[in-house]
Amino acid sequence: MNCVIERNSVKALGKAIHALSRIGNELWLDPMVKGLALRSVNSAHSAYGCFLFSPMFFKHYSLESGSKQGSKAIKCKLVMKSVLPLFRCLTSIERSVERCHMSVSTATDRVIIQFFCRHGIIKTHNIHFQESEALQAVFDSHLCANVLKAPARLLADMVVHFPLFQEEITLSITPMKVTLRNYQQGGKGVLTLSGPMKTMYTEMSLHPNEFDYFQIGLDSDITFCLKELRGILSFAESRSLPVSVYLDAAGKPVCFSVEDMVLEATVLLATVTDSDSRDHSQPTESLTPKISRCISSPAQPVAMSQGPGSRSYTVPDELIASSQGSPVISCPGAMRLPQIREQTCLSVDSQECTSSTSSPASTKVCSLLFNALSSQQDQDGCAAQLPVLACYSDEENADDNPRSPSQ
Amino acid sequence: MKFRGKITDIACLNHFTTFSRILKSAVCLNEADPLCSGVVTTISKLTKTCVLRLTPDHLFFILPGKVTNGGVGMWCQLLQANFFQEYQMEGVTSEVQEICLEVSPEPWSRALKTVQSAKSVKLKLTRKHCACLTVAAELPTLSSVGRVVTHDVPVDVIPRRLWQEFQEVGVPDFDVSVYLPPLKTMKSVVDRMKNLSNFLVMEANLNGDMNLKIQTDLVSVTTHFKDLGNPAGGDVSSQDGGPSQSRDPEVMAEVTVDIRKLQQFLMGQQVNPSKALCNIVHQNVVHLVLLHEDVSLQYFIPAVA
């Protein structure tokens, strides 16, 4: 992989790394035909972040590594502590870096990041990587009952009232209002040497008409970790992008997503399940930690996608596009990442879901919409073994409103 | 015991914002106590908390200074009528129309930070999971419906037997009283001096001269401020205790203080006060008095032994 990033975009890349550093200690790099994906997951597997930069984001983007023509793009994993310091001071990067070259050198097992700065200074960083399968989470935002969309500024204004050390917050949504409050564990506060420590309780509420888009399918109360969210909010604010929030009942993951012409960012956070909301212990994660080789276990994801009747599913192009058996973080609620182009929504015939390969016809349909998808499938020998999370009939219902609540 | 207050006027809210900034400085003052040096002192909760005293006419915000361990004391007084459009209180008993609450400064200043951008604020004494001071702020929005943010700040009611600590502190019999130079100037001087020494000598005389001095083995630095002016006779405080008439105007009264305490005091002053003066009790204490429109602040920085 070899890419060149222009001055203004280097800052965006830096901000993305900052946001991911709040989530996990390792950074997964996944160069794909449709772009470079940067991902991270936390150790408890309760938070996942993915930043996908399309080729248009780069001045130059190629999957081949320099001298080795025709070599496959390497998927790798870097230690966040090695990468973050390079982008730590974004203001000085903005001032002095003219462009940035990133390349993966398989010969030396290093990712080479070069900053071409003012006055002819070139800073070269060689970071050791570990070859790894791509990291992916499976989440279908279209299955979420509630969808909110708001400018980043609004969400930032909501969380500013909570202290930086606040771990978890609870978001409640009803047709009348949206409330954010800090999560009380046990309700009695924490016992310290000087007596029970009384925590400050903060609550804020907003009217639905403050949101750009507000869709509510069911009243819900979800509790999730605030710290991991702050990264993507700061990223969205820096690009002045609206943030979409996909949420469902307590226990199901919540998805925060930001997109524009050249990039797409998603953060998935596990939420506390209802029965655990009174526990003193860590909230149980509903994103089950399952980094498994997905190839040989089609049953799980497929079973999840078997829904009643005519559910509309979107093609999880990220999952199928993985080269070797990609680790899948599977969730009990049939979750997949939201799509870039959400208007493409293919209806599913549930009977077809049992097959673990996609029929050639559907592959072709797929390729009309997602170029990367079909080409990857042709290349990858194990495509046939990949679990299919969505089967599609030839008659796709392109008129489906992607945001309508699922049946 | 009841308390309810409401601020709806924007100008009053701005004044209240000044108050919250002062609180931030209070948090700074209380946190970095050099004698603690890493050991958490749980000897007295009062050094880590602030006291809010409510009377029918005034609000007092007090940081009790524990002079024995070098702590700094702060006293802040507001005339409630200048801030609140609605103010109702009932004291602990029908005869005693006063309430004393102990509150942790950090959450309190965070709650007040929200108030800074609010359209209107309501303060109420409530009982939720414990006794709380509820701050409910309505924030302005583009739509017709405002956003409401509620903070429940936990408080402890202070029993009456401890109240004498929080009664109005008399101005000490000072030796010299002088107006302070512009606080920004003082701050930049003190910031640079801090790099050289831990202790600073503040001295002033009745001729309107003030010096800030530091001394190390290698270097000694003195900054001279002239023509500052002395408050006539007494000062803004109601107590008497003016300087004795026979004092030589050239003689300096000096106090050696921990430079960090002075720096923290100056850091918190982001708004220029309408009046700022300093009373010095020779080798004893520096008493700084600031008047920000309707808020009066007094700081006591003790001399270092």
UniProtKB/TrEMBL annotation, chain B:
<keyword id="KW-0963">Cytoplasm</keyword>
<comment type="subunit">
    <text>Component of the toroidal 9-1-1 (RAD9-RAD1-HUS1) complex, composed of RAD9A, RAD1 and HUS1. The 9-1-1 complex associates with LIG1, POLB, FEN1, RAD17, HDAC1, RPA1 and RPA2. The 9-1-1 complex associates with the RAD17-RFC complex. HUS1 interacts with POLB, HDAC1, FEN1, PCNA and RAD9B. HUS1 does not interact with RAD17. Interacts with DNAJC7.</text>
</comment>
<dbReference type="InterPro" id="IPR046938">
    <property type="entry name" value="DNA_clamp_sf"/>
</dbReference>
<dbReference type="InterPro" id="IPR007150">
    <property type="entry name" value="HUS1/Mec3"/>
</dbReference>
<dbReference type="GO" id="GO:0006289">
    <property type="term" value="P:nucleotide-excision repair"/>
</dbReference>
<keyword id="KW-0227">DNA damage</keyword>
<dbReference type="Pfam" id="PF04005">
    <property type="entry name" value="Hus1"/>
</dbReference>
<protein>
    <recommendedName>
        <fullName>Checkpoint protein</fullName>
    </recommendedName>
</protein>
<dbReference type="GO" id="GO:0035861">
    <property type="term" value="C:site of double-strand break"/>
</dbReference>
<dbReference type="GO" id="GO:0044778">
    <property type="term" value="P:meiotic DNA integrity checkpoint signaling"/>
</dbReference>
<dbReference type="GO" id="GO:0005829">
    <property type="term" value="C:cytosol"/>
</dbReference>
<keyword id="KW-0539">Nucleus</keyword>
<dbReference type="GO" id="GO:0005730">
    <property type="term" value="C:nucleolus"/>
</dbReference>
<dbReference type="GO" id="GO:0009314">
    <property type="term" value="P:response to radiation"/>
</dbReference>
<dbReference type="InterPro" id="IPR016580">
    <property type="entry name" value="HUS1"/>
</dbReference>
<comment type="function">
    <text>Component of the 9-1-1 cell-cycle checkpoint response complex that plays a major role in DNA repair. The 9-1-1 complex is recruited to DNA lesion upon damage by the RAD17-replication factor C (RFC) clamp loader complex. Acts then as a sliding clamp platform on DNA for several proteins involved in long-patch base excision repair (LP-BER).</text>
</comment>
<dbReference type="GO" id="GO:0000724">
    <property type="term" value="P:double-strand break repair via homologous recombination"/>
</dbReference>
<dbReference type="GO" id="GO:0031573">
    <property type="term" value="P:mitotic intra-S DNA damage checkpoint signaling"/>
</dbReference>
<dbReference type="GO" id="GO:0030896">
    <property type="term" value="C:checkpoint clamp complex"/>
</dbReference>
<feature type="compositionally biased region" description="Polar residues">
    <location>
        <begin position="236"/>
        <end position="246"/>
    </location>
</feature>
<feature type="region of interest" description="Disordered">
    <location>
        <begin position="230"/>
        <end position="249"/>
    </location>
</feature>
<dbReference type="GO" id="GO:0033314">
    <property type="term" value="P:mitotic DNA replication checkpoint signaling"/>
</dbReference>
<dbReference type="GO" id="GO:0000723">
    <property type="term" value="P:telomere maintenance"/>
</dbReference>
<comment type="similarity">
    <text>Belongs to the HUS1 family.</text>
</comment>
